[in-house]
Amino acid sequence: MIKMMAAICRKPGMTHAEYLAYIQHVHGALAVEKPVTLQRYVQNHVFDSAFGTAAEASHSMVVARDSVTELYWDSPQDMQTTNQHEHIRTKMGPDGANFSDRPSALSLVATEVEQAVPRPGRGSGAKTLHFIRAAEGLALPEFFERWAKAHALALERAPDAAAAVRRCTHSHLLPEFNPTLKYFGGLEVFYEGVASLWFDSTATVGAFRAYERALIEINANPKTAFYRPAQSFFLYATEVLIYERRQD
Fold first, then answer.
1. pLDDT tens-digit series, residues 58-77
2. N or C: which end of the chain has fewer CB within 10 A?
């Protein structure tokens, strides 16, 4: 399965609440109207976030992120079929102007890789999306390998986080699809990975902070370094399922 992700900021003059209501009930309805080959559509409604690290004076990214869209297909061919369909070109795409600050949109095409957690569960109450820039000069295969090892080690070092996380996936960038991301518009900055971690509630999602601190400690060792914390960010969100194809 292949997925497209987009971290979106609301357009100027729109409140966060207005934005979320629009993308769920208006834009989401357009998607359900004609999903074409789409298998699954999830909106992550952001309620908190942090950018870079406390040790850094600034962050290079635009800080406002109101939602993250996740679109799933069975294959790259299905993704292309959907994106080229008349409904997408004439209704879905143009509707973005009604809610999205297109110059600041951030998107990627990726595959999901499941990561082990000590206490797996449904974890539908809250979610962390951790957008990660790979360490400079690190090839993607090595980045993905180091990242997976860092995840496992971080859970060992942060028992409170290990007890709270119910599921974790790593979305691995597929750079060959970067040219297709003009659909969302926006920044020509590519994040090599996004970690999604599910928690039972908004009260327990904060356990991610201990996990993040462990990642930063692991990353400080040149032998295990894998990402650039100062250019990475995370979002706390609630997951809203807009569409899922029925499996007959």
1. 455 555 799 999 999 999 99
2. C
